[in-house]
Amino acid sequence: MVSNFHSNLSKDLSLILYDADDYNVIIQVGDNENIKEFHAHSVILRARSSYFKGAFSKGWITNENSMIVFKKPNITPIIFDMILTYIYTGELDLTDDLDEDILGLLVATDELLLEELFNYVQDYLIRERSIWIHENLVQVLHTVFKLVRCEKLRDYCFELICLDPKPFITSKEFLSLDKDILYDLLERSDLQIEEIDAWDYLIKWGIKQTPSLKSKNGDIIKWNNKNYEELKELKKTLNEFIPLIRFTKIPPADYFDKVRPYKMIIPYNINDEIEEFYYKGKLPKITSFSPRKRIILKVESKIIQSTQFNIINNWINRKNNSIVILNKNDILNNFKLIYRKSRDGIKIIRNICSGQGSILILIKLKHSEEIFGGYNSIGWPKCISRNKYLFSTESFIFLFEDKNDTQNMVINRVAVPSCAIYDCPIVITFGAGDLELDYEYLSISPSGYYGLIDGNAIDGGDIKFEVDDIEIFRVN
Question: Ranges for the BTB domain (predicted)?
């Protein structure tokens, strides 16, 4: 049997990195005022990186006083320190590092051919820094889009955008989006966007990208005659993008008001087909892109948004990402509204759930934006139990900060399956009171589910809320 002594090996190699005086490589990294010099050993760099092996043998270096001098101005000192730590010790802790530095580390490891570290950093960003990625999609895409090996992170960004594109296309950063990125985005059939919105924001992007039109807005009605010459410039900017718009999916009224005024920028053959479609109903041949696939769940709710139903759908399918992607391969559950308090009045909640199968409950509070909920995978039986626990491994309770929250939500899965649901005649109870609901009040008391659903509550105490509205869905 082989014995491992890796801990001492890592410790000793770190001493070589930081304390040894027998180095033979000087690496200068950074630029301007942010330059730092690192000392290293060519034998270790060659052994750990095929990039350095090639660099030291192909004359990419200079020699000064028997010392190899290597310059990397495109890598910052902070990032290169991470890289040397990994090369010498095989260890790296990114917990306290800035998101931008981790993204820079990904780019640097791609260049230096450190495949193991590259794969780890790419997965780490998706797994641990997904919220930051979601908030900085343009920056991330501009950084990794043309790096072949960053395909996983690039696709992750595109899927985030496709799931809910409105925040992305309405951001200021969108107008500076690289044209190749925009092309790939509009080409996708899973982009969850109304086609007239895709057209509107393409026009805004095009105006921003056309120097002679930068001071103009997107309302062509307000332009004067001089601007029609400038439309020729806009046509050049958008020429390759126009065929990506699914014009047949734009309602006639929107076509008349928002597309027709820009007919001058649409290639003649495409414009003729579009007009023939709207006037005669004849389907185009040239603009033959398939319709976009609608994968966002459309659910009848006044409490939460469709994107939050996507998150709940994925929780039901055991996907617990902080930013949840719904794609064509996922199981789409059907949520059928069977009760809304504001519509159907005061009723015994337990009776409504009887014999309905799996149940999702949403609870809107009075005097608060928070939204509580619970999912019972086994449902409540027709025959009401008398104070009996029901077994479930898949039930959970959850909390959204508000009706738009897709980042800070909390899910607590059942910790004691034998006590997942407490069945009694009147109220709905998850666990031993973890979440207890009648038509008027919601009570929280941590017990049989992982974690404490209300971060403001005191461990071991009961919290009671007044209910504003309740929605109950049968889940198929």
Answer: 23-96
Tokens of 261: 């005024």
Helix ranges restricted to H, 98-245: 99-111, 115-128, 130-135, 137-144, 151-163, 166-169, 179-187, 195-209, 227-238
List of residues 6+ apart from 1 with CB closer than 8 A: none
Q: How far apart are CA 227 and CA 239, in angstroms?
A: 18
CATH number assigned to the domain with residue range 6-136, chosen from the 4 options 3.40.50.720, 3.30.710.10, 3.60.10.10, 2.70.150.10: 3.30.710.10
Supply φ then ψ for residue 48, to 5 degrees.
Answer: -100, -15
Angle of helix 151-163 versus helix 115-128 axis, rounded to 10: 20
Distance CA 375, CA 240 (A): 47
**Residues 358, 377 contacting (CB under 8 angstroms):** yes
Residue 358 phi/psi, 5-degree rounding, is: -60, 140
- Hey, where are the domains in the chain? 6-136, 164-280, 306-475
Task: Give pLDDT tens digits for 55-95.
Answer: 877 666 667 677 888 888 999 999 999 999 999 888 899 99
| Angle separating helix axes 99-111 and 77-89, nearest 10 degrees | 60
Sequence-separated (6 or more) residues with CB below 8 Å from residue 51 = 111, 112, 113, 114
Q: What CA–CA distance (Å, rounded) separates 136 from 99?
A: 10
